[in-house]
Amino acid sequence: MTMTFFRRLPPRRFTAGTVFWALALGGISACTAAEPPDGMVSSEQANFQVETVAEGLNQPWSLAFLPDGDRLVTERGGRLLRLSDGEARAIEGVPEVATVNQGGLLDVVLHPAFADNRLIYFCYAAAADGGYATRLARARLTDDRLADLEVLFTAEPYVRGGRHFGSRIVFRDGYLFLTAGERGNREHAQQLDKYHGKLIRLTLDGDIPDDNPFVGDSDARPGIYSYGHRNPQGMIVHPDTGDIWLHEHGPQGGDEINRIRAGANYGWPVATFGENYGGGRFAPEPPLEGTVSPVHHWTPSIAPSGMAFYQGDAFPAWQGDLFAGALKLTHLARLELEDGEVVAEERLLDDTGMRIRDVRVGPDGYVYLLTDGSDGRLLRLVPAS
Question: d(Cα 155, Cα 101) in Å, to the nearest integer?
Answer without folding.
Answer: 18
